[in-house]
Amino acid sequence: MDNLLNIPVRRPDGQETTLSEYRGRVMLVVNVASKCGLTVQYEGLEKLYEDKRDQGLVILAFPANDFKGQEPGTDEEIVDFCTSTYDVQFPIFSKISVKGSDKHPLYHALTQTMPAATGEGPMRQRLKDHGIDTGTSSEILWNFEKFLIGRDGSVAARFAPDVTAEDPRLIAGIDRELARAI
Predict the structure, then answer these.
(1) N or C: which end of the chain has fewer CB within 10 A?
(2) Residue 30 and residue 1: Cα distance in Å, rounded?
(3) What domain range includes position 44?
(4) Which residues neighbour 85 within 8 Å (Cβ) at sequence distance 6 or greater?
């Protein structure tokens, strides 16, 4: 799964990098938004990061404006919001698209590798009840969907947007990956 780690991504300052710099760590990749009902998840994600970063967890935030315009800001505005409102310490990347024809190659690889999400169900139905087209089950459903990547760079799990940082299923997956050797 090295190819996943070698996909170019951009930092908010414009510098290109790849996830390979996090090789050997457990990564939680999250598509985020500042003006979403789920934005409060930043609080739990930051606490999770603080609790488990010394064990090898890193949370990687990818802002996306794909859902009802809920991430309208510039990269600089997004970083400022995250750090000033939620004291986010984990890496935040440049805004990307996580669905549709302009889907970033990272999200193309993630959704292709792990098409189904744990916790899938309640949120999809709520969105449908509000008249929102939720697309196929392999597409990113909404903001704050999470992909767990093991120390070896392979996708270990995918979690629906309403699976929070405190959810026992997410914690168990992270702990399982943290316990694995490289």
Answers:
(1) C
(2) 19
(3) 2-179
(4) 42
Buried b (16+ CB within 10 A) or exposed e, 153-178: bebbbbbbbbbbbebeebeebbeebe
Instruction: Enumerate the active-site residues.
Output: 36
CATH code of the domain in which 80 resides = 3.40.30.10
**Total domain count for the chain?**
1
Are 143 and 32 in contact by the 8 Å Cβ rule? The answer is: yes
Give Dmax over CA atoms of the chain in angstroms.
45
Cα–Cα distance between 38 and 14 in angstroms, integer? 27
Q: Tens digits of per-residue pLDDT, 108-131?
A: 999 999 999 999 768 888 898 999
In the chain, the N- to C-terminal Cα span, in Å, equals: 13
How crowded is residue 92: how many other Cβ atoms within 10 Å of its Cβ?
Answer: 22
Is 0.85 surpassed by the pTM of this model? Answer: yes
Instruction: Measure the CA–CA gap between 92 and 7, rounded to whole angstroms.
Output: 16
Token couple for 39: 């934005």
Name the one residue in this structure whose structure tokens are 């459903």: 141
Token pair for residue 156?
């270990």
142: Cα separation from own chain's centroid: 11
